[in-house]
Hints:
Helix content: 25-40%
Number of strands: 12
Low-confidence stretches: 1-60
Structural class: alpha/beta
Amino acid sequence: MGLLPPASPHSLRCVSGPIRALAPLVAYPAMRLAPAMLLAPAALLGLIPAAACRAGNGPKDQRNAPVVVGSKNFTEQVILGEMISLLMEGRGIPVDRRLNLGGTFICFNALRTGQIDLYVEYTGTALTTVLKEPPTKDGASAYAEVSRRFKEDYDLVWTEPLGFRNDFAIVVRGEDARQKSLRTLSDLARASPGMRAGFGPEFLSREDGYPGLEKAYGLRFRERPLQMDLGLIYRALAEKKVDVVVGNTTDGLIDALGLVVLEDDKSYFPAYEAAPVVRHTALDSHPALREALASLGGILSEADMRKLNYAVDGEKKDARAMAREFLRRRGLLP
């Protein structure tokens, strides 16, 4: 399966192989897109084949139609899309894959208009980007609010969360974490006068990024944080050009390079919990679909997702094969 070329605006994640292959690092989308950086909904017409648009079909047609599974255009989403598709196929539910569609607005509008039946979304993204509500640090309240509003406004159903969050992550080298006793962001505040930071331009300016983080924890780095290309942040950290970077909690390179994510002990960052969102009509047309999605509830930890992301991006393994292997290990596929 060929992944779409990386696009920087949705992302603080990097793609690479092992440490010896850091030179070709490029950014790929992982974090929630700012509204101004998303493709316009009208672009849907050029991205989704007309055959996928089934909004005019009646219930009888839907019963025999495949479930159209979409995804955003980054590795984690493709893996999750494959996981859902394989699980449904294993239960006899026909599937039509429409993966790598684009960003949040592309996938959400495809779902809302019936061009796809489901995709995986993140609570913080749905709350701020789709519903235009302020972010919340309370994961349970974020899930409850997006579930309620999506049902009332769009007749869309949030199913059980998959078990992991893809949040902002403040990352340091493992050796520094050990030597400086860094476990939390409060620990980082104590050590920050002797450390250098490098962040992407969006994180440096956005409301839930560095300006608020600096105030919340009293960070005072040795010098003003460097504005860095997202594709270079882990390389710069590994080469000791900076000591602190911002990434995502499910970045595959975190474990591969022996890096450490510092605990957000003041719960500053909003919650970005992953869960499938599905059209109510699809659940009605395919009774086995709800049970299939429910079986994925809580199945993935952040560590699981990091390993899967790294297997595909760093080790160049096939996303579908990795999804199938994971489901087999969990006893969900033979």
